[in-house]
Amino acid sequence: MTWRRSALRWLPTFLGFPLGGFAAELIAGPVDGLAPALVAGAVTGVILGGVQSWAIGPHGPPAHQWLAATTTGLSLGLAVGSAAVGYGTDLADLVVQGAICGLAIGIAQAIVLRGRVAYLWAPALSALWALGWAVTTAIGIDVEAQYAVFGSSGALVVTVATATLPALLSTRAPRSAS
Questions:
Q1: Is residue 173 a part of any domain in this protein?
Q2: Residue pair 75/38 in contact by the 8 Å Cβ criterion
Q3: Section 52-67 average pLDDT
């Protein structure tokens, strides 16, 4: 699979964010406490992890590992991140929450990633999830509703920025000269 094709396969994962967020809202309600944060993170993580696992394809980690990592990371990250900002919804709060949540997801996913990508994944997701919340807040989405995940605008930014993951996973590291 070419880099371009691999990256294009990743782009539909954008849908995992609004679908996961909508399901989390229906099941857990607003993220305004520990229990709703854990449940909303798990619901969103299952949906997002499933879609991403499909997009990574056969060159990535086993689907069950990616799904478990995404679900665990998002559940714990949302619980810690939202509590750390007192369940606040202003721009600074959501950027901090996003950074913590992205870091937790990135660490969990990095455990199942192979190769050099794993070292960069956690800090990259931390920055990108913070950016996702900043974009969502900046365009005027009703973030006071305490959603589990940023809106479609933020999801699009994060998805495009991470679209090289499947291509990086399908590329073998160069052999060292001996």
A1: no
A2: yes
A3: 91
